[in-house]
Each structure stands twice: as structure tokens, then as C-alpha cells.
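pinned: reference chain
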Amino acid sequence: MSNIVAVIGRPNVGKSTLFNRLTESRKAIVDPTAGVTRDRHYGKAEWNGKEFSLIDTGGYVHGSEDAFEGDIRKQVKIAIDEAFYIMFVVDVETGLTDLDEEVAKILRKSKKPVFVVVNKCDNNKRLLDINEFYGLGLGDLYPVSAANGSGTGELLDALTAAFKQDLMPEVDVPKIAIVGQPNVGKSSLLNALIGEERSIVNPLAGTTRDTIYTRYKSFGFDFYLIDTAGLRKKKNVHEDIEFYAVLRTIRAIEECDVCIFMIDAQLGLSAQDLNIFHLIQTNRKGVVFVVNKWDLIEKDNHTVKTYTDAMHQKLAPFTDVPIIFTSVTEKQRVLKSLELAIEVCQNRSKHISTSQLNKFMLPHVDSNPPPATKGKLISIKYITQLPGKTPMFACFSNHPNYIKDSYKRYIENKMREHFNLSGVPIEIFFRESK
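pinned: its C-alpha cells
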């Protein structure tokens, strides 16, 4: 299981620059204007073989003229509440401010592990100026320069050393997570499966909170169901519901083998659903799409095909995913979703022998070889599956660097034609043959 780390701090201290540095991306906009980051950015980072999810938040402000101030401050508090660890970024150039003190008070109350990151330490003189931040009372300081990367190694060493061991159940049975946006029927599905009101169902989105495990042993199945459960009274549910949903989804995805991804038939696949789908792919988890509330859709002979085609168009290029249409309230095809999830779990752990791979794949490679590049003829000698928890394959070639992504998709499509890898993201690497 990975860990969620939130990057917190007042505006313009370099949070987004640090986020981009640690995730090796440019997802977050970097600008000297305070308040540029209003939405959250989510990324994966890795250090010393340990992966974690990083959340870039907007700058914590109070008393400004920014119309978004309240929303940003609220989401910062949510990130503190939901994350496992906090990177509190401060600026050595401007020194300790009242806003830093205000954020520190919130962090002390949270009792979460906090790493005080003193940014913009670009030279030795600035290293002498960091001591005033010990006054925050949050422990050790980590001087860094997010712009050039200095000091980030020491920060990541300390962060990853603090990561706890896997908290998932030790029993070696599949772990299936029910994920999706708020109010699509996730808790209703859990209750329908286990036959009791384990999760609270409420038309108010966001009543479900903490991740729970339910051992499911019925109808020949044996696995853990992962859902998020718990209740706060309606008067207390004022937070940014979508932000909570994303954080809970990240946790569930990282802890599972397969996701039962629920969407509302009336709403279809939204942009946020596609973000969740990409998180599933990035984490290399299996997926089954459950289109819920299908009983509310007017149907004719072509409705299922039309709906499926529209979903495939949005999911492309990864379209080899099971899609099942259900009504949880009517108990329609509920168990079928479990059957598909178990099948996908088996696909995810499938091992294909090298002889089988080459018997089926090399004829396709020979009949349609990679196109020549820079006058070089490219050939693929053989293909083998790499060891790992998820399907990964290596194709050995004389010029692997010249093989384009379009040909990788061709190889993947042919593999999916011959071997049942439905619902499973696969990785294909091209290596030099010797």
C-alpha cells in the first residue's frame, strides 16, 4: 500500500515547484502570483523503491481579497485530515510569518507526522537563516531548493523511513474495492452483497468516510471488500465533498487488487470518472465497470451497445474492460459484478509461459514488423513475461529505442486477442537483444 502525503503551506512558498520536482512532472502550474493553485493535483512519487501519492494544495490564506480563499482554506484542512503525512513548506526568503504560525497550530492539533520543508535554500547563507522555523515546534527542518532539487534526497529519505508497514489484512485473498464518485450506489452495493446495513446509505453525498474491510464468504466467493464507511451528522458535512471522494478513492485503489468502478447510468462517464480511471491504470489495478441505476434508463434493442460504445470511446486506448449494467436497489446482476471482479483478479496474476507467448505473438510480429526508422530494419527476436504482481512483458529487439508507441499498442492488442487479460492494465517494454 502506498501512502498519501499532502503538501501544505501559505501561498507562493514553492509548493507546486516541490510537487513537480518530486513527481517528476509539470502537472502543477508554477507562477510567482499567489493563489495560482486552487484545484488539487495528484501525483505518484517513488523513492528507494517506496511509492507514495502526493497532493498539491492551494496556499493557505486568511483575510485576503481572493474570492476563493474560503474554498482553498477548507480544502487545505481536508488534505491535512485525510493524508497520512504532511509536508509543511515554508520560505526562508520571507522568514516566519503569522500565516505559517496559523498553519502550524492546525498541524499540531492534527497529530499527523509533519516534515517542515524550508524552501529556497539556494546557498549556504540561507542555510543559516532556517533556525527561526524551529519556533514552529514541529520538529526537524529539511532545507531544500525545490527549483534545483538540492536537499530533496534527505527529505525523501526521512519521509519514506517514516512510512508504516502495510496495514492491509495479511490473509492472501483478493481485495476488491468499490470506487466511484459520491452517490452512485457504492454503499448500497456493499449492503446488498453482505445482506446488512454495514455502510450508511444517504442521498446526501459524502456520508461515507473511513476505509473498512469486509470479509466476504458466500456463494463460493472468498475475498475482502474495501469500502469507505462511517458517518458524520448532516450539519457537519460542509466540506468539499468531491475532494473527500478523491482522497478516499486514492486510498481504496492503492489498497486493492481490483476495483469495482461504479458510475451512474443517468450521468455517464464524467471527466472526474476518467481521472479515477487513470489512477487505476497508474496503480496497475484491475477494473470492472458497474453501470448502476440501469433500471432508470429508457431502453431499446440497441441501448446497451450504444452506451458501451460511448464508454469505450472515452476510455480509449484501454478499452478491454468488463462493463456490466446493474440496478443495486433491484438486485439486478449484483453477483455477476463479483464474478467479473474475481475473473479480473485472476487475469491480473496470470503467468503466460515464454513458449506460449512466442508461439502466438511472433507470427503477428513477422507478418507486421515494426516500421524501419532512419534506414534501420527493426526485428523482435522473442517475448517473455517479467516477474511481478501484474502482467509485464519484455520484447527483445535489435533496435528497441526506435520502436514507436503505436507499435506497442499493436503488440498489446494482439496479446489481448490471444490471452484473456480483460480488465487488467499491462506494461510492455522493449529491450535490446544480445
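why pinned: The longest helix spans residues 241-255. Residues 27-39, 63-69, 197-210, 229-239 have pLDDT under 50 and may be disordered.
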